[in-house]
């Protein structure tokens, strides 16, 4: 039985809750405002959803003040779409403007909403500033020395915990990708070029309901592949290969991120054993994934199974957060001590080296509940799927 | 007759030419190195092509020294794929590393290759720095005051002019999207929800040969739509609507960016007239697009046709550069005085307001030749296509 898709968008109350949480955290550290520049940051508080971020030309700004509603300072090309969100204070300029691309308007807005206190810009791990550096320097000069600081990790803290409405969207993305993966045996046969399989797989994702397919990587080879981030080559799939496809599709602005391995013909002993190891590692990770544990604990649980506790691989981690972006905080590594909490959406992504220069990686998506964790992706079987 | 697809990738000589051009420009301004952090910048000198940039977690660095070959300073997860490019000096760390995410390694590398002179980071219009601000500050502190400066517009200057091999890839992307657009009448019929048309159109792009579909926006309504950047809604296409689809597909790392308008049923007088105006504007833009003209001249040529010379619209410009990214420099606006040169790939994108709150926009892709310009996208007919 297919569950109905969740509703698109969020009620305004969702954004008000996010804003209240943000303003509580801002009050704790004395920030007068947050200045946000990236797609996910702007969308988090506004619901502004467009693929137009693919164009690097124009900067977009959102000011989240310590009191009151967010103010959008954006190119006029976005005014109509931003006007459909709950945001009412929308200030625009005609971008691109080569002499002043919104910097004065942004500076005025910040001076208006920040009577006292500093302006926090996300500056830590996994963040970046999506505006030209010369404009950032000009903005800082205009505001006065020391007025701009980091956001004290507030955006990370907020986005680490997903609401039930967010989780429903991620589950929907997982369900769609799961249906596409189930149809892979129909498109991936020995002799088919990998690039053709990649194209057909993306079409399956769309046909099953993906809004778009921002991420697909994979590989194929005997007993595994060299990495997990490569695009397709024209090499034909060959009997004896292990084929891996790893996708992040988007549904209503939320990602899934999981992969599947397939054996072309009867799996080798090495590949079959690796798959079992990966399933054991996922089970160990799932078992460790409960409130109060730390990200490092989940790493060690999986790492004990895959490397005997050697401490990881070239991939650098075996899982991570997930949500509005393909990958988010935390990381399942030995040194990430983030405390696991209900509402976190995470991937379990163990990898094993099958032989020199070849790996197999498996990935599932889970959500942390009050007592443990449950799968959002349709959990893989213990046997490698043969195609 | 279908022309054969160009070869994938580039010969090493293409990268050496790019490097030589960069080093000549660096010598002119006395830069010891370029420090690059974004997907397009890194790929420009390396050919490193992966969709893994969708993950914001890990920073990636490329150091282009004043003499010698580029040095990649990257997460170990990318070592295998970077090893397939012409780059031989690849330095990796196990990312994510929460205490030192490549900053020390990058600092050492920069100190090694930069004996004298400053390090240029792209900082101007349409650029951003893809690394955490705290890491950038740490890097600058480690290198010493004033060691990091902007890139003097070098990356912009290099990427403005495309090689014939690059143009062939953009032409291929245009050809593929053109074939998909030709099939729109089969998927877009009155009663079909817009979101379903968007999904099917992306599938057509893939079926016709797109590697992936990073961009699709559009809209539908009587006599036009409210903007050109919106994602799909669930509203059904209705008789009398003008449907617009604007796509940027990728083929071997290069984009097309053009749109098509369709009339659902017989076009209104307003829509038919607007289409004619847009075709006239494209013709005027094409006529103005030749070496020695300026970006502003092409703007004015189109603007005279669409607004009678009023000076533009909310979209902010009526065309732009195109290549490794959906949009690149220059902009067709009144104040962009970039001199047009052979090898520039540009979009002509005039828009008209059809009635209060509604617009129609048309877009084609062209390449500047020695004497003028030619179309890369299959030029639209003078009559609005009826579906």
Automatic annotation (TrEMBL), chains A, B:
Domain Creatinase N-terminal: 18-161
Keywords: Aminopeptidase, Hydrolase, Protease
InterPro entries: Creatin/AminoP/Spt16_N, Creatinase/aminopeptidase-like, Creatinase_N, Pept_M24, Pept_M24_MAP, Peptidase_M24B
Coiled coil feature spans: none
Protein's recorded name: Aminopeptidase P family protein
Keyword Hydrolase attributed: yes
GO molecular function: aminopeptidase activity; metalloexopeptidase activity
PANTHER family: AMINOPEPTIDASE, XAA-PRO AMINOPEPTIDASE P-RELATED
Pfam families tied to this protein: Creatinase_N, Peptidase_M24
Peptidase M24 domain sequence ranges: 169-369
Keyword Iron-sulfur attributed: no
């Amino acid at each position: 039985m297919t569950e109905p898709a969740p509703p698109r968008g969020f009620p305004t109350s969702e954004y008000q809750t996010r804003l209240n949480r943000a303003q509580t955290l801002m009050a704790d550290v004395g920030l007068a405002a947050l200045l946000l520049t990236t797609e996910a940051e702007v969308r988090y508080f506004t619901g502004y959803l467009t693929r137009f971020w693919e164009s690097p030309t124009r900067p977009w700004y959102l000011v989240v003040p310590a009191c009151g509603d967010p103010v959008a300072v954006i190119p006029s090309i976005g005014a109509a779409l931003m006007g459909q969100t709950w945001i009412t204070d929308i200030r625009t300029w005609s971008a691109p403007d080569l002499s002043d691309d919104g910097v004065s308007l942004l500076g005025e807005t910040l001076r208006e909403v920040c009577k006292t206190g500093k302006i926090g810009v996300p500056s830590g791990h996994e963040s970046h500033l999506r505006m030209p550096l010369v404009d950032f320097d000009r903005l800082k000069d205009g505001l006065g020395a020391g007025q701009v600081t980091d956001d004290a990790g507030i955006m990370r803290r907020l986005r680490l915990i997903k609401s039930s409405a967010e989780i429903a969207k991620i589950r929907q993305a997982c369900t769609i990708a799961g249906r596409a993966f189930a149809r892979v045996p129909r498109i991936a046969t020995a002799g088919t070029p990998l690039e053709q399989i990649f194209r057909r797989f993306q079409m399956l994702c769309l046909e099953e309901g993906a809004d778009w397919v921002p991420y697909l990587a994979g590989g194929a080879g005997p007993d595994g592949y060299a990495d997990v981030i490569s695009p397709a080559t024209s090499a034909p799939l060959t009997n004896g290969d292990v084929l891996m496809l790893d996708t992040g599709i988007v549904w209503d602005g939320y990602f899934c991120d999981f992969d599947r391995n397939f054996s072309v013909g009867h799996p080798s002993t090495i590949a079959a054993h690796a798959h079992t190891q990966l399933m054991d590692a996922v089970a160990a990770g799932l078992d460790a994934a409960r409130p109060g544990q730390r990200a490092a604990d989940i790493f060690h649980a999986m790492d004990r199974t895959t490397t005997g506790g050697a401490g990881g691989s070239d991939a650098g981690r075996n899982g991570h957060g997930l949500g509005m972006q393909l990958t988010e905080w935390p990381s399942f590594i030995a040194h990430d001590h983030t405390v696991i909490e209900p509402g976190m959406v995470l991937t379990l992504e163990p990898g094993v080296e099958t032989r020199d220069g070849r790996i197999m990686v498996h990935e599932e998506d889970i959500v942390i509940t009050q007592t443990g964790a449950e799968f959002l992706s349709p959990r893989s079987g213990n046997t490698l799927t043969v195609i």
